[in-house]
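Lecture 7 notes. Example A: sequence first, then its structure tokens.
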Amino acid sequence: MASALEEAEVTSRLAREHGVSEDAVRAVFDALRRGGGTMAQFSHAEFGGMSQWSAGMTMVGDMFNDSLKAKLSAIAGSLADYLRDHPAERRQEETSVSYRSTGKPSAATWWPDEFGTPSSVGSQNDMRYAVFPEERRLVIDDHGQITVYETGDHRISGVSQAQSTDTTLTLVSQHGVVRVSDLKRADMPARS
């Protein structure tokens, strides 16, 4: 397990190497933790605002700035390697779900506890998602409405969200592009 000092050193080194602030590197680091170490979605001014990263895909707010994309790709790739090599660090953001009397998950972790740890999570505007490959489930919180979907044999490797007033998610699996509307809804797990 890495120490907070080691993490600070990694953050500082990457900031120096790529000419960004430590705050920008921490934003990527935090988003990667939320994304299970495999994807990040965050907003930071030094990356042009809303940005996303997963292996093979990098998007920055300044979408035609290839230099900025390369910078984010290098930083996120290094941090993903770090998190893979230090799995305890990746679990820092994971806590168990506690249900309120309304039956909704708490804000800290909003997905059902029974599904375990998601392989990836992300959010934009008032929509967030969590992918659970072992359970073959996708959980979406759209403006406070939580819906569970069966992913079947899809091994989800990417998620993108339309940046418009229509809040829709598109998934990428070994079968290609999958729309959430093509997935079957599943029941929320029973609580004891």
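Example B, a different protein, same format:
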Amino acid sequence: MGNIRIVGATKRFGDVTAVDGVTLDIAGGEFLVLLGPSGCGKSTLLRAVAGLTPLDEGALELDGRDITHTAPRERDLAMVFQSYALYPHLSVERNIGFPLRARHQSREDIRRKVGEVAATLELSELLQRRPRELSGGQRQRVALGRALVRDPGAFLLDEPLSNLDAKLRASTRYELVELHRRLGTTFVYVTHDQVEAMTMATRIAILDQGRLEQVGTPAEVYDEPASEFVAGFLGSPPMNLFPATVVSRGGELVALAPGIDVPLGRRGELPDTEVVLGIRPEHLRPHDPRPAVTGTVRMLENLGGEEIAHCTVGDVRLCVRGPRPLGLTPGDEAGLAADPGHVHVFHRTTGRRLRWQDGATPAFPPLPAEETHQGVPA
């Protein structure tokens, strides 16, 4: 239960296409996070699933049933808003039980279900308080309780932690993951915070300008980004990206640019090819006797157990991240190396990740249909 299928979802506001042909399958019981920058269309897509924003094109299904034109209250979905939307004049008990009273359930059933939900969310001692007497985290749990009491087919959560301070966000993330584990219900969660996505999701769907860029587990989207956008969006600091040219040198493929001579660990013959090279800051090693990148250290950031060095390589700025101390000093000429397996190559024009045929032979083939912005990357 709780299987959601989105097919070709498109939503326009005047001349702006907020959601652009998104197709996505959400399995029952998974914790799927819709991730992307502000204005990428993630909240609009969630509201379309909830029935609050009608689609211009496309279809929506819940457990195989077409709900594209079904009224929100009949979709068996529970929405949790960023603002919590609690009734200030009602107690916690009456806030949680409101959906059941709206459905004219008996007082005995309401009291029993509210008690069960309150116990699950550790709200039993707060049932007679008003929202103004609660902390931000407690209000969030009341909002979740009001959704949970309906026993919905899926939960839809729109940036529910954005109003909490950093410490409370961390603890509430843990509570949400534990709640999902106990319930086994589908969660669809919208956020622009990559830490929330990486720590909570079973899968992440990354959007940009209304289009679906990549869908995968946290490890997949981080380790094998399908596009230059995904590579630059995930990570703190994000992946170092710089233009380069792939050439064949003695049968070996190498990426070249000013101050950059990076072996790709592949053999073959290939015409000189303009690409964008990507290396994550934690995958650059300083003090290597055979450096692939040579730059100048401009600044160091002390993060306690780690250190980040900001460097310039020609006109390109890049970061190196590792255990403190890195052994670098501002003004140093730094030689940096990276294993070929940690080097990413992206198409200079489309920004899509370039593949290798047969795992070894050089290949920059035409992008297949599934590698376009209109579909889910392979």
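Note on Example B: The longest strand covers residues 16-26. Residues 360-378 have pLDDT under 50 and may be disordered.
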